[in-house]
Amino acid sequence: xxxxxxxxxxxxxxxxxxxxxxxxxxxxxxxxxxxxxxxxxxxxxxxxxxxxxxxxxxxxxxxxxxxxxxxxxxxxxxxxxxxxxxxxxxxxxxxxxxxxxxxxxxxxxxxxxxxxxxxxxxxxxxxxxxxxxxxxxxxxxxxxxxxxxxxxxxxxxxxxxxxxxxxxxxxxxxxxxxxxxxxxxxxxxxxxxxxxxxxxxxxxxxxxxxxxxxxxxxxxxxxxxxxxxxxxxxxxxxxxxxxxxxxxxxxxxxxxxxxxxxxxxxxxxxxxxxxxxxxxxxxxxxxxxxxxxxxxxxxxxxxxxxxxxxxxxxxxxxxxxxxxxxxxxxxxxxxxxxxxxxxxxxxxxxxxx
Length: 353
Known about the structure:
Layout (H helix, E strand, L loop, with lengths): L2 E7 L2 E6 L11 E10 L4 H7 L14 E2 L4 E8 L11 E4 L6 E5 L21 E3 L6 H4 L2 H13 L7 E5 L3 H12 L3 E6 L2 H9 L4 E4 L4 H9 L6 E4 L4 H9 L6 E4 L26 E4 L17 H13 L9 E6 L3 H9 L7 E5 L1
């Protein structure tokens, strides 16, 4: 029987049997068997613990189907599927489920014509090149968040970028910023993660609580820091971002500031900081999932996934340093407990199916 992971209540995670897929595939559908998934250590651990979930950007109710980092293998395709074939590996945003159906496109929907200015409907699927290990491909979405932060933060080639928070999302942002030609400073709260940031391309690394301003001034030189990418939820991370900013610095916020911490001990909009220095706060949210033609929306989720997987294939990026722990899917509760333990050596956690 197929199985799927559900959180039934805080700290109650189960690997439940679900109904088998017993219907014929539609013309544009693929049947996929999951081979590997990756934990999203921020979002999913909070849903597991129930911590401050009323402040999430979307509604959470139990039972909750977890997961959106899925590497699977196509086992069957509909008769009109064009880009996929049985045996091929794909990356999707499907949950922790052993077998599922996704659609290359939805028959009859507008947007199938490349000249249309409205999006096609489809499930987000990206083919994985044969030379990209599943252990790298499974982090595609989490690395895409750093890509988005650079775009939303209006990064320009040659700028100085600081990344605050060195979980898996922050480390992905370090990798993306380095690839984009930035000088990159990585700021975290664990010595073990500074070395990982170095291996992903950071030029300078330091611990939060060091003299952040003097370190930032030495790093930025005359130009200062142009863009700060905030990847930690703690109010202290946002305070650090403000402190190291110069006039007109842009703060791209990937985190959920203050989740689980109550009201801030300072005002993020203090006139001496926000107004006098003309700081820009930029929320980094989703890349469009719909398949708009590129002349209307150049970067959709599907295009960014395929771009990042191509970079992995060409050895331009390698997410391998973030992989620290591996579990069988039946051990998912142990993985959650590890993620909640605040063991800073735990970064990227994957599950074998």
